[in-house]
Amino acid sequence: MICLDPSISFILIKPDALNNKEIYTDLFKEISNKKLNILEEKNVHINEKQIECLWPYTKTDSICKHLIRRYLCKDTSRLLLVSSDGDSILKTTSIKTKIRDLYAKSPFMNCIHTPSSMEELKKDYDVLFGDKKSLASSENKTIVIPSARLDNLTCEQEERCAICLEKMMMLTSFKEYYSALNVMGERYILNLVDDDVHDAKYTASIILECFEDISIEHAYYIAFGTNYLSEFVLHATNNSKKATKVISMFANHGMKVRDRNDL
Question: In the chain, what are the domain boundaries?
């Protein structure tokens, strides 16, 4: 029986890292450099119930659930239980940050998952190493707001949105998209700033409310880009009243929008 304390952690190697020799090699170099000992190692197939327990927001965000399910459920992942003389949670978090900075292609295709706290270690350990038949759903603490365009989608429509989003994120990275917009001629280039509070569905819902002509896929793309880069381009215009209105509308929902040209 493993006694869970900060000397214990785990690394879930996701399919994109497991199937890439360069990422896999660099990951194990980092594990060695951090002097982590592998206590247990096994292949796993993540199922939908585990997805909801590991990432509770997917219980209310079906599009994100479809994306994660397409990424994790169809291929094998590898699970490492590790220990060290020091703080293993801190060490595995450091490894996760480095590997993702080098190789992550999107907020979902991001190579590895590790716990960031003792609370998360205990929760995720039960999900990944415990009895899968008795999984208890984690509480979803995210803020949920009604959205006519998101809440009335059929399962088929959600799947199509997920497929489209997946293609968008693979074709153009967030950094490439963001950099390309530096050459736009509009006077006001408005960036949405990540606040570490609102999840992707909340952000996408506000975007859809403010811009009626935007697609659901594009709204989610902006939401993911904001989270991924800390801020992301939301809207560009030459109309000062329009810019002021957008900034005000998002502020009313507790979100910050700033004019990139004011820097």
Answer: 8-134, 148-262
Record the tokens describing residue 76, joined without a space.
Answer: 């094998």
H-helix or E-strand spanning residue 164? helix 155-171
* Tokens encoding 151: 């809440």
Which pLDDT value is given to residue 152?
A: 82
User: How far is residue 235's CA from residue 211's CA, in Å, rounded to a whole number?
Assistant: 9
Q: Which fold has domain 148-262?
A: Ribosomal Protein L30; Chain: A, (3.30.1390)
β-strands 112-113, 256-259 pairing: unpaired
Using 70 as the pLDDT threshold, list the residues of the chain that sit under it: 1, 131-147, 180-184, 263
For the chain, the 3-state helix, strand and coil shares in percent, each to the nearest 5, are 55, 15, 30
Cβ of 20: how many Cβ atoms within 10 Å?
A: 14
Determine the topology of domain 8-134 in CATH. Answer: Alpha-Beta Plaits (3.30.70)
Residue 206: enclosing H or E segment and its boundaries? helix 200-210
CA angle 227, 232, 234 (to 5 degrees): 120
DSSP tag of 149? H
Give the per-residue pLDDT at 228.
85
**pTM value?**
0.80
